[in-house]
Amino acid sequence: MNRRKTIVAIAALAAVAAGTAAWLLLRPASAPLARVRFAVVAGEPLRYDPGVFHWRSGLDLVRAGQAIADGQAVRFRGRAELRLAPGRRGESVVYFPYAVRPQAAGSVRVAIVLERDGRETPLRAFSASRKLEHYYAACLDLKRGDAIRLRAEGAGFLIVGRAVVTPRAGPGGRPYVFVLAPDNVRGDRMLPDGGPSALTPAIRAFAGDAVCFENAVAPTPWTLPSFASLFSGQYEFRHQVTRSSPLSLDKPHLLAGIAPRFPVIQFNDNVWLSAKMGLARHHDGFFTSARTQDVYADRMLFANARSFLASAPFPALFMFLHTYKAHAPYEPGAEFRSRLPRGCRESVWPPIHGAQFDPRPSEWERQEMRALYDAEAGQLDHHIGGFLRWLKEAGLYDRSLIVLTSDHGEEFGEHGGWFHG
Length: 421
Hints:
Elements (H helix, E strand, L loop, with lengths): L4 E4 L4 H14 L7 E3 L2 E4 L1 E3 L1 E2 L4 E2 L16 E13 L5 E13 L5 E9 L2 E10 L3 E11 L4 E14 L2 E5 L8 E5 L20 H7 L3 E3 L9 H10 L3 H4 L24 E5 L16 E4 L8 H15 L5 E6 L40 H31 L6 E5 L5 E3 L5 E3 L1
Parallel strand pairs: 1-15, 1-19, 14-18, 14-19, 16-17, 16-18
Antiparallel strand pairs: 2-13, 3-7, 4-7, 5-6, 7-12, 8-11, 8-12, 8-13, 9-10, 9-12, 20-21
């Protein structure tokens, strides 16, 4: 059994955080990690506050997307240019996040080039007619004096984060940590002896290769404060994170001791985990999709993670992945609805308390909700299984600590209530 795999059912998230941090910090550093800032060559530099992740002028460029800490921000009309001196030679991984926002109804042309001995080699070029948030990641054979230039033409705003520059991963082991934290997954859909095994075969198979923690309790019954507990190691009454109160900068953070030695990347599709909630500190890339309730949000999330891992073979990495599945509305994709009972709707919300909801659903409504939830859990299991298979094919599975957990569970009347538990 591979004891570096962990499955936590309805997680005791502070324990997960402590264990993950200890595993990372006890590992010897595998390669030097450098974070390098771009220099502004052309454009009007703007004062940018990485603590609250918005322009001081009020332009909220990264409101629902990636948080770019310690970034360079410029406003331009005509042309902007930023220059990076990687400071390394040989096969290297170069990564940096960027965001561009055209002004008014115009478009912006962006180019990334490698400068060497007075000549330029195009690396990427595109046009943006609306706000765009993405990253550049590639393996480059760097020479002394090389520079990477990021240029934009048109009118708008451009921000770029610190670049991460490391040697390319060699044939030896890579100390990777993956925290897979889907939303709203009941413990009996994860553990080997809970619920019908046919619902989540991939998760059950993973549990057989993992250390399982069965006596685990979520610190709160909903996403934002639960993950704030994971990243801060504090209970809700300590960190006091709410819808209107993000995690403050004076609170401890799990990644504070990890980020100096490991690149830190997060992909999620939940607006409650967006940068404005204060959870993006110490990240090199924090990417939040606005397609929270897309039927196939989980498929897109894991595809984005695979694409990143393929383009950026870091010698070490911490990656956090969170998808909104299996949150209500219970709405599985068409191919996962084959086992639904006859007459079952394609999507349904549970009877949450309040005037517009009935807290006493009929027996048919109970059966329908459970069936749709289980179908959605099966869809999530399918995509988690695909990601784990990809890690094995890429040679990463046996070299990584993989944590599978959830922020909270879901009640179906077991304690007289419905929705989160």
